[in-house]
Amino acid sequence: MKPLVRHDLAHPDGRRVFVYGSLAGEPELVPSETSTGDIHCRLDILTGDWVAISPKRNVRPLDRERDDERACPICPGGVELPFAYEAVVFENRYPSLVADPPPVEAAGPVRTALGRCEVVVYTQRHAASFGELTPVELGRLLAVWIDRSLELWAVDRHELVLLFENRGAEAGATLSHPHGQIYALDHVPPLPSAKIDAHRRHRKRVGGCLGCEVVARESGSERIVAENRSFVVGVPFAPRWPYEVHVRGRRHGLGRLADLEEHEQIDLLAALRGVALRYDALHGAGTPYLLVTQEAPRGQPDWHVAFEFYPLRRTRTASKIRASVETATGLFLNDVLPEEAAAALRALAVDEPPIGGEHLHRVERAVREHQAVAP
Ligand SMILES: [Zn+2]
Ligand SMILES: [Zn+2]
């Protein structure tokens, strides 16, 4: 694996910026005009679920009206990243959760907004998407994901680390520049909590690992989209979203990104890119989707790392909206037969340049830490 140097910068407003790859000179970072404000979490006592309240997020910039490099804050030279880079992670200027949250007082059950919100910039190329990244860019991005996952899971207070991408305006992305995000949470929200319970119940009542069971059921089924030696790529048995695809590790013990062996890294990248390209081929370039990782929560040996894609289209022109029934009850309505969704995705021919070991990277920390200065 090639070394990928990580340079740690300190933003004048206190946020951390990690520059991966080469870094020329001393970068100048523009101080943030906003603070975290009065972010906090409130408990809905009717459901027992926490809600993160972050009023400042409504002032986030939108580059949609002039969607080009000149207006983009995360292009090289933009207000957020005023220097050349290969891949960058920085703490969100408009976070819902922070490492050092402000104290909170309210007439009701509340907790501080403890956690992390990071932005992962995949490449300095504005006009690209995850599926269009070169093998070198993909290998670099995976090394960045592994680095961040390792570091954020290593914080005891973090109970869940979620890497994700909201792709497209319909998915809530305010920037079109190819990027994803990472949230670290100090508690386990309802859905991951239900999955943890399901794994524990299976171990107790049936014996064995529920993740292994899912892999065995999916592998070779008619819902497979594109299997490879390390990952099962298929439409799940009960998908909530039309054309939903899960990319799940086969090997027991592969619970988190940092567990990936070299050949598994290659297979993962090929699988993820294949799904992204198939969506564009099925529903047109720029098809909006949500992409999330499911890494093993703390103390969960029975867990297979997975990436889940939730596309926001039912057809080329019809959107899938999470409407009343889904939102009010959690019962999802899916009007695409999973077996037919898999067949449609499987039948598509996509151009997939080979990814090899020569494209993989291993992150190394730069010896000297940079102290960025305001211009
Ligand atoms: Zn850009
Ligand atoms: Zn297993």
Considering the chains and any ligands shown, give keywords for the structure.
single chain, HIT family, subunit A, 375 residues, 11-stranded mixed beta sheet, binds zinc ion, 22% helix, 2 domains, alpha+beta, 21% strand
Instruction: Name the CATH homologous superfamily of the largest domain.
Output: HIT-like
Q: Into which percentage range does the β-strand content fall?
A: 15-25%
What is the number of helices? 6
Structural class by SSE content: alpha+beta
CATH fold-level assignment of the largest domain: HIT family, subunit A
Shape: globular
Q: How many separate domains?
A: 2
H/E topology pattern:
EEEEEEEHEEHHEEHEEHHE
The helicity comes to 10-25%
Rounded to an integer in angstroms, the radius of gyration calculated over CA atoms is 21 Å
The hetero molecules present are: zinc ion
Low-confidence stretches: none
Q: How many beta-strand segments?
A: 14
Strands in their spatial order, largest beta sheet: 10-11-13-12-8-9-7-5-2-1-14
CATH class of the largest domain: Alpha Beta
In short:
It is built from six helices and 14 strands. The protein is of the alpha+beta class.
Question: Can you offer a commentary on this structure?
Answer:
By secondary structure, this protein is an alpha+beta fold. It folds into two domains: 7-189, HIT-like (HIT family, subunit A, 2-Layer Sandwich), CATH 3.30.428; 191-358, HIT-like (HIT family, subunit A, 2-Layer Sandwich), CATH 3.30.428.10. Helix content is 22%, strand content 21%. It contains six helices and 14 strands. The longest helix has 22 residues, at 262-283. 41% of the residues are buried. Bound molecules: zinc ion (ZN) (2 copies). The site of one zinc ion has 6 residues, from loops.
